[in-house]
Each structure stands twice: as C-alpha cells, then as structure tokens.
Amino acid sequence: MSRFQKLQHQTRDVIHRGFDRHIRLAVTGLSGAGKTALITGILEQLLYANETQQLPYFKVKQQQRLNGCRLHTSSNWQVSRFDYEGAIDCLTTDVPRWPQSTRDVSEIRVEIKYKPHRGLAGRVLDTRKLTLDLIDYPGEWLLDLPLLQLSYDEWSQQQQRLLKAELRHKLAESWLTKVQTAANAASEDKAEQQLRELASGYRTFLRQCREQKLLLLQPGRMVLPGELEGAPALEFFPWPLSQAIPDAWAKRLREKYRYYQQHVVTPFYQKYFKHFNRQVVLVDVLQALQNGEHHFAELQLAINELMKSFSYGNNSLLKRLMSPVIDKVALVATKADSIAPQDHQKLTELLRVMTQKQRQELQFDQIPHQVFSVAGIATSQIKKLSNGTTVLDGINENREFVRVGAPEVPNAIPTAADWQQGYIYPQFYPGFTAQNSPLPHIRLDQLLEYVLGDKLK
Amino acid sequence: MSDPRKLTYYSVDEPAVEVSDTDSMPEQAGHEPGSGQAAAGVNSGRWGKWLALGLVVALTAAVIESVLMVIERFQQNIFLGSLWAVGFGVIALALLSFMVRETWLLQKLKRRWKKQSEAPKPEQQLQLLQHPDLEHRWQQIKQPYWSADEERERFEVDVLSRIDQQATRIISRWAAEAAAMVAVSPFALLDMLIVMWRNQRMISRIAELYGVKLGYWARVRLWRQVFANIVYAGLSEVAVDLGAQWVSAELLTRLSTRAGQGLGAGLLTARLGYQVIELCRPMPFEKVKKPGYLKLQKDLLSQLKSVLPFVYKSRQTKAAATSEQEVEN
C-alpha cells in the first residue's frame, strides 16, 4: 500500500513538473550564510501570509488571491523533513536562540493554493496549486560540487594556489613539512599508512582554517563528515608540493579522489541538486567584511566556484521532465538587520560588484537574476535618536538588550586603507516570543515575489 | 591585539523613536512665483503691464473717490455717512478675503505642481491628500526598513492607486453621462454647454478627491494647464488614443452620427479628467499604470446603447423596430 502511495506521489510530481507547477528552490549558501534562517523565514511568511501586513510586495497576497499555504509530505521519503517547528521553537522559547547549524540534509514541501487570474487557467480554474520544495543542507558539503568538474591534478593545482595565501600558508606549514618528509621516504608497502596519517593532518588543517573562518574548504566531508566519519573514502588530500607526487602515492590518491567524486559527491548532487529550477544564492557579505580582506577575496572565489556547478538555462517542456535547469537566480546579501536601512542599497551594490563575473555569465545566457539585501528573520529594531543617529535595538550574545549605532557599509569593494581600518557588525540574537508570529523579516516579500511570483499569476 | 574597529553602544534609556514616526515633516513653504510647468507661463507681455498699471491707477482713484464721498456724506449727515462707511467696509473686507483666499489656493496648487517633480515623501503626500483612512492604511503597511524608493513605490501602488481608482470611476461615470447627454441633445450650442458644465463639475470632484481645493483663479489656472497639456503635450497621445480606438475598430463607420458625437464628447471629457488626475496627483505616475481608455470606451458604448438604441448604423433599422415594438408593448 505504501509503495503504491509513493508511486502515486512521484507520478504527481512528474505531472506537476510537466505543467510547471513545481518549484524546487535551491537555497545555496556557504556555512553560516543563513540558509536555515532564510528557509524558516520563508516558511513562516508563507504559512502566515494571510494574517500579516508584512508582505506588500508579494502580489498574490496583495491581490487577495492567496487561499493559503500548507506543509506537505515530500515525495522523497528517504530524506528527513526540515524541522521547521523545531526552528520556530528555538527562536521563541524562554531563552530564544538561533537554530543549530545544519549537519545533514533535510527537505520540506509547501503547497501554495491560489486563484489564478491570467491566461487559460484564470478562466477555467477556480484554484490552482503550486508546490514548493525547500532543501536545507550543510553549506560545507556544497563546496564539493565544484570537484565534479576537476581532475585530481587540476584540483591540486587550485589548492596549491590557495595555499600560497598568507593565512593558509601559516596554518598549513607544519602539515606541509610533514608531507615533504614523508614524500622523501615514500615506499610502496608503507603508502597506505602514510597517506592515512597525512590525510588526517590535512583534516586538522582544514578544521583550523574553519576556526579562522576561511571558506573555501575542500573536500567538504572532511570538515563535516556526516555518516562518513572515519571512512577510508576520506583518506586523501590535494597534492600541495611543486615536486611530482611519489609513484607509490599517485595512483592511490587519484583513485581515492575519483571514488570520492563518484560515490560521495555525485549521489549528493544527483539526489538533491539536479532537479532545482530556481536558485537563491545567499552571501554573508557583512561577515566577510568583518573578517577582513583575505576572507572577502575567498568568499568571492567560493561563490564563483559554486555557481559554476549549477546548470542554468531555459526550461522547455521536455527539459522540465528530464533534467530541469535553473531558470531564475536571486543573489541575496543576508543579515541586513545588522545595518541601517539606508545602507541596504550599499549592501546590495556591494554584492552586485562582488558577483559581477557570474552576473555577466547569467546575462549572457539570458537567465533572469536580481540582487537583494534580505534578513530571513529580522532580530533588530531600527530606531532614531533625537540627534538623528540611527540605532539598532537588539539582543546580544549575553542575552542583554543593547542599542548599537548602525555601523557603516562601504560603497564599493574596500581599498587597502579601508581594510586597515576594518569593519565590524553587530551580531544579534533572536528575542521572540510565541506571540510574535509571523516573525519579522526584511524584504522577504520581494524575494518571494521574484522567485515565485511569475508562477502565481 | 587591540582592535580599532568598534561598535558604538548607546544607552538603552535614551529616548528613541520608531523610524516610521520621524519622517513626517511639516510642509515647507518653498515656492517660487512663475515656477512649475513650462506651458503654464503664458507671457502676458508689454500690454499686460500697462493694463495692470492702468487698473491700479483706476482702482486707487476709485478708493480715494469713495473715501472722499464717505467723508462728504459724514459732513451732510452722520447717520448716512456711517451707513456708507459700513457698506464700503463690508465690500472691501469681502473683496480682501476673497483675494487672499484666491491667492492662497492658487499658490497651493502651484506649490503642488512644483512638489510633484521633487519626489515627495509619502508622509508629505498624505498631508496634501487629506484622507485620514489612507493615512491609517499607510501606517499599517509601512515597514521601517524600506528605502525611499521602495516607500514611494509601495505608497503609489498600495495607497495612492486607491484614489486613482476612485477618480477613474468618477471619470468614466461623468464621461458616460456627457456622452449620453450630447447624444440626445437637439442642437450644437446645447452640446457645448453640456460638455462645459459636466467637465466643470467633474474637475472639481476629482480635484477634491486629491485634496485640492479650487478657487476661481486656481480653477482657471487648472483649466488652462489642462488645455495646454492637451494641445502641446497630449496631442500625439490624443492621436494615438482616439486614432487607435476610433479608426481601427472601424467604429466610426458603424456608429450613427448622434452616437458618434456622444462618444466624442465622452472621450474628450475622459481625456480632460485624466489630465486633471495627472495635475492633481501629488506624484507623477511611476509604478502604477496611467488610467487608459480601453475599458472606458466599452463603458461609454454600453451607456450610449442604453440611451440610444440605434447606436450602430447596421442595426439601426432593427433596433428601431425593436424600440417601436417596445413602445407598442
């Protein structure tokens, strides 16, 4: 019986896809970019859409054509459900906190029921449904996707370039000497053992990098292994030295790398990422600004790498059924609640400049895209002092109510002198109660309208 | 490691206001004479100056004359003198207050035109509109994080468009009435009078809707501006609108003469009305689509049909026959 049900579900999905009534939204972002908060925010706004005045830009609601939204079981029964209720609980308990960072893949499905007003559907149908799938996953794993297009040697070269950067070099120094000495004493019979040790050394290095808030950490499973903890699949590393790889190691490293590609990354990609047809790219620009020049550059590089691994194009009927591609992209600067509203424009502009290259490519492929500054869940209140200073009221990490002068956002990519000075942004914590629902947001309605609006006509 | 970067913290007890409340600024009285739209500044020229001078001299003479007269009367009889004095006083006062009101209203209209081009804030616009219900609505939807552009967009789409809708409804009703009246009126002079009268009423209603009070001169000014716009700026628009609808739909050939006149009067009335909307609106049309004629024409025709059963030539005989039948019944 349940098998039949499952089949039924999947058939319906295919039909929906064929009729273009199914959106799989790729919420793409590195770890800490705010994916979970954004997904929670989107769900919160959709589920409470008819009870709030907060969504003026969401046209289907504004034109009073929205019947409602409902959470629904997803057709992919192997994936755990995104814990929306848990996240809301976290945000609204007695001691509200941010939901834990994501450690595994989860999925959630929302059905949006509305009255169509355009086209044939508007004349024939009373109500119509749109299915929206949202998928949450650890941002660390996302960075594995670029590996699919790189051979081991190409990847090694890329990593060698990265290792030349000052901060990374310093962190990797001890590991590099270890590799050097071990490489000199490389032998066929001890190879397995040596590689395992060096791989664990590489893993320690990656973790240190992560503590230093570096972003481009590959392979992602080494940082957050999930079910692969301690598995031999992870016993490899990029070749960091300019000298050639010892013969005894070369074959093994390449083999492991290929295995990782084929048996770890590819299934991940196939299962979750292949069927996306809309994308939201989340970028925590403010955090990168605060972390400094090096991090900022790395963020740019990481986004660049990431966006390469998605396929963009126009969805024709056949393509929709077989292998959908992303036909609309929203580039989103998150955590807009930690700056003054008059700086949102600057933040958007900054992200626009940062993603210039990718935007040009999208432009070339005629993929609609737009840049937003958003907060999935807004944790600060904007106030003005009598002397005109804009301040942000919020709760800091010690659960104290604080009032912070709105920090500055640079107009363009900061210069060396600007980096000397540095930037800092407040980190607010949620301070909601259950009465606050739907939780406040910043500009989610515009994002929703952009991503979903054309399917809700 | 000392960090030069620092967040500034403020005392929580210091009074701070929600951003949404601080923006309401008092209306500033910045106005320049002869500003605003180019077409408005009709040059009265050299003769106007002489004429004004003559008028001023004559007026002064009249004032002196009347003062002298009143004094004379006082010498004759104190009672008669005071009666004259009171009479003149009342007239002077009435004139003065009329003039003050007129100039004030005219200035207000001019100021609005000037403001229209300056991208006014929603709060300023609300002050001009004087609709408490809309003010309330705006307070409800306004989000503190919006940029000025977003605010303007939301204000136009969610608040101002409601007034636009009301105004369009008024226009279509008034236009339909004018069309019907012209269609049934027996002679041309009456047509003209009807159009003038209806348009006058309509303009006042629309202006009122947008919070514009019209005095005599303000009204004249508005009319002048409306006509100037129609003649100078709107001519091509008229050509497009009328041309597209009249000619392309081969309507002209199918309409009876009466109905054609009526439709013409109706469309002209509507055009005037749309011009008035544009002039009275506190901001130009940006995100909201300008009201158009497409639906209006349909309304007009259906209205005409109900008044004149023989709107279409081709159906003329048939329609006449049915109407006769109805009469018989």
Automatic annotation (TrEMBL), chain A:
Protein name in the entry: YcjX family protein
Family matches, as PANTHER family: ATPASE, ATPASE-RELATED
Organism name: Idiomarina rhizosphaerae
Pfam families linked: DUF463
Lineage of origin: Bacteria, Pseudomonadati, Pseudomonadota, Gammaproteobacteria, Alteromonadales
InterPro entries reported for this sequence: P-loop_NTPase, YcjX-like
Top-level taxon in the UniProt lineage: Bacteria
UniProtKB/TrEMBL annotation, chain B:
Keywords: Cell inner membrane, Cell membrane, Membrane, Transmembrane, Transmembrane helix
TM helices/strands, residue ranges: 50-71, 78-100
InterPro entries for this protein: DUF697 (IPR021147), UPF0283 (IPR006507)
Cellular component per GO, a single term: plasma membrane
Its membrane topology: Multi-pass membrane protein
Coiled-coil annotated residue ranges, if any: none
Region (Disordered): 17-40
Cellular localisation: Cell inner membrane
Main location: membrane
Family designation: Belongs to the UPF0283 family.
Name this polypeptide is given: YcjF family protein
Organism: Idiomarina rhizosphaerae
